Target: AbiEi antitoxin N-terminal domain-containing protein
Amino acid sequence: MHASAEFVQPSVGIDNHRPYSALGPPCRVNPARTGFAFRSAFREHNCLKSVLQLYFPSISVVVEPILEELAAGQWGLFTAAQARARGVSRANLSHRERDGRLVRLAHGVYRIGGVPVAPLDDLRAAWMSTEPMVLAWERVSTPGVVVGGAAAAAVHECGDINPVPYRLITSERRQTQRTDIVYSRRQLDSRDVVVVGGLPVTSIERTVADLVDEIGDLSLVGDVLADATRGERAVDLEHLGLLLTPFAARYGHARGDGPALLEQLRRSAGIDDVAAARALVRRPAIGAALEGIVSQAVREQLRSIVGGLQPQLAGSVELREHIERMIAPVLVDQGRLVSEIRDTVLAPLLQRQREQLGHITKSIAAQISASLPNITIPAIDFQVATGNSPAPTVGATETFSIKEEE
Model:
């Protein structure tokens, strides 16, 4: 055995038009220095691997589908731990980050290059980093980390409070050196956790109560509550009052008087009962429910009118069809009536509905008086069934005697 030996670069079918020196100069190694020999061979292996990936890019193409599949269900994001569990090395990620195919949002969290930037991406990345091995959609059913405080308000799109540092609520003690995350250890009731846009966050009631505790500026928190009462969201004010109970004395109210603190918060937000009622009836679901109540009552009342006239209109098919045609627009008018409610939720609706039905009944009677004189129309008790009000009834308390005008 010679005192020194020369490693010969292995042939890998390289294009003859490219310089052989791309693999680096040959290494002369003293076999006695075994450690150096192994290190040299390792460098040789990495060099060969790089050349193979350069000349045979199909070897690494499989990485992209893995990353895209990971990001597809996580807002275009994924963690290094998730990728590593699927055979993608950190070197693969670093290489793609350098050439722009990946964007690093936080330590160990990446976004696929080309995915549109979303306002909540940094919050999502912070939340994903708390349990990096678990996919986001697997965590929402039984979340171990819930977004709370101003960050939760941002997810609810309420108020304008800076969400950083992100408050993350856990049931176990956690610590972090990151400046963009603050952990709170607390047990949350199931009704105080909701999923919004794939993120588990505190409910709007729990969020408002937490902000009253954390921030102390009721005007800022009031803006959150004001935004929450707009649109289609329903705020459980009774539950919110209970959640505010521990903080009532801090704001000058009797100890445990959460409703008083809630009223103060509503005043600071410019929310009164009239505004709340207006916001309530503008919600499609509430408006549709009110319209259903009124329309059902109108149908029953008009059916009673026609039913009372049936014995007197026997054989007059044409006249009955004429009355039905006159009645049909009433149901449409009732739908318009619901959308006109402004000052209170139901009282104006009831009054207007009674007035309109009385007017309609007299109008029908006037139009048929020329054809059938002396027809008595059953009296109608114009009530709308709302749960406490009685159902529409036909009675004899009032009659309209229709006589042919002379």
Observations:
- Residues 1-39, 56-61, 384-406 have pLDDT under 50 and may be disordered.
- The chain has four domains: 5-58, 73-121, 140-271, 283-401.
- DSSP finds 15 helices and twelve strands in the chain.
